[in-house]
Amino acid sequence: MTGSPLSCPLVVDLDGTLIHSDMLHESSLRLLGESPLSVLKIPFWLASGKAVLKRQLSDRLTFDPAALPYNEELVAWLRQQRSEGRRLVLCTASDQSVAVSIAAHLDLFDEVLASDGVVNLAGRRKAEALVARYGEKGFDYAGNSVADLPVWEHARHAIVVNASASLQQEAEACAEVEQVFESPAMGLGVWRKSLRVHQWLKNLLLFVPLFAAHRVGEFDMLLTLGLAFIAFSLCASSVYIANDLLDLESDRKHPRKCKRPFASGSLPIWQGVVVAPILLLASLGLASLVGEAFLSWLVGYFLLTCLYSFKLKQLVLVDCLMLAVLYTLRIVAGAAAVEMSLSFWLLAFSGFLFLSLALVKRFAELQVQLLHGKHQAAGRGYFTDDAPLVQMLGIVAGYTAVLVLALYLNSADVVRLYLAPEWIWGCVPVLLFWVSWVWLQAHRGQMHDDPLVFAVKDKASLIAGAIFALFMALGSVGWVP
């Protein structure tokens, strides 16, 4: 069957073509987040066929089609085709209810063909269904994967989307290629964002006990903590990936987080599912080389972050308390790595300071949501009206950390560790300024999602940090003017 482009229906695939994602993967992760025990049923559903699995998932889950990462370039082209009078058909291996919901949201397609709980409409089955409906060479088809090759064999024209160069060549051997839509870049920069390498700065907290005890010159301890730093960083990256995979929908509704690699579709979900456990295993392997005590704390950190990701981040105030615990736990783990004890002063100071930073992080997020007219933070238990109270609690926590530092300066530990302890008093006004400065910037809407990332990029924070370190150094060497 031949004919003009307008008389020939344009059939469009969904997963990896119309959207930069896969609905089966999205649904499985959503089930894991909402009902972890139900994931154990997936192998039994799959044993009855992919169509059954997809139907079971769609019956148990709801999703917001507006939040999906659509291929905007393709969607714009499809709208142009339809405006010229072309008939558009959405044909996908995803479940019928999922496909209908997406089609209704886009208001773009004249017809929807999808898996029905019995037949998985993919590969040759999709090709057979389309030939039966439109005839041999009676349709054009937009697809993205090897599974679409049998369909292109029977299509008049091929529209190749998000495909590799080799797949494009195979498509050209099957049918005349009408249009090509390139896939988004997947270089090292995308993975760096996904691993959040910049967040590894937090793991420098492992070295704090060594600095606090004035034992920085001990090379063997530095080497041990260096290995611990790598182990903690790999573990943190595995958690970041897992957290991003579980937060797909809420991240897509966030003005900035929607640009994260998995939320935007820059990275396929399945790659994150594979990489996260590999990073975790590598982390545990390195941690075992550091020592049993450090390994125990690292496992504890991982379990707490999992608990945070699955539930605690949704609980008001508990989420910030947990973030403060996770920050402080890095210091505890660093002490365990080099078999050092921690003082009450250091733990109290860290707890209050990191609670303040956790609250400033949440306050900044609420400010962004408020500016975009949102009433509630997506995936959180906060309302935007809570921002003033969160701000007050955070400032109090920050000033309490300053008070703990001031009280510490009257302890016997200061006289024992510092040759000129009077210099250390200079740290108090510096910290007081920095805490106030951070909250002032957050109040003005100039705070990054993560205050530690803000601190390493902010000139005033860097100067304050340098002056703080100078006072500590002067107190340590006992310099007298």
TrEMBL record:
Membrane topology: Multi-pass membrane protein
One CC-aspect GO term: plasma membrane
Keywords: Cell membrane, Membrane, Transmembrane, Transmembrane helix
Domain of life: Bacteria
One Pfam family it belongs to: HAD
Signal sequence interval, chain numbering: none
Compartment annotation: Membrane
An example Gene Ontology biological process: glycolipid biosynthetic process
Transmembrane parts of this sequence: 223-246, 267-287, 293-310, 317-336, 342-360, 389-411, 423-440, 460-480
Gene Ontology molecular-function annotations: transferase activity, transferring alkyl or aryl (other than methyl) groups
Name of the protein described by the UniProt record: UbiA prenyltransferase
Protein's organism: Rhodoferax ferrireducens
